[in-house]
Amino acid sequence: MTKTERREEDERIRRDFPLLNPGEAYLDNAATTQKPQAVLDAVTEYYRKSNANPLRGLYALSVEATREYEDAREAVRSFINAKSTEEIIFTRNATESLNLIGYAWTEDHLSAGDEILITVMEHHSDMLPWQQAARRTGAVLRYLEPLEDGTITEEMFRKALTPRTRLVCMTQISNVLGCRNDVKTFASIAHEQGAVFVCDGAQSVPHIPVDVQDLDVDFLAFSGHKMLAPMGIGVLYGRKEILEKMQPFLFGGEMIEYVTREGATYAELPHKFEAGTVNAGGAVGLHAAIDYYNRIGFERIMEREEHLTRYTMERMRENPYITILGSEDPKNHHGIITFKVEGVHPHDIAAILDSLHVDVRAGHHCAQPLLKFLGIPSTTRASFCFYNTEEEADRLIDALNSVRKEMGYAE
Ligand code: C6P
Question: What global pTM score does this model have?
Answer without folding.
Answer: 0.98
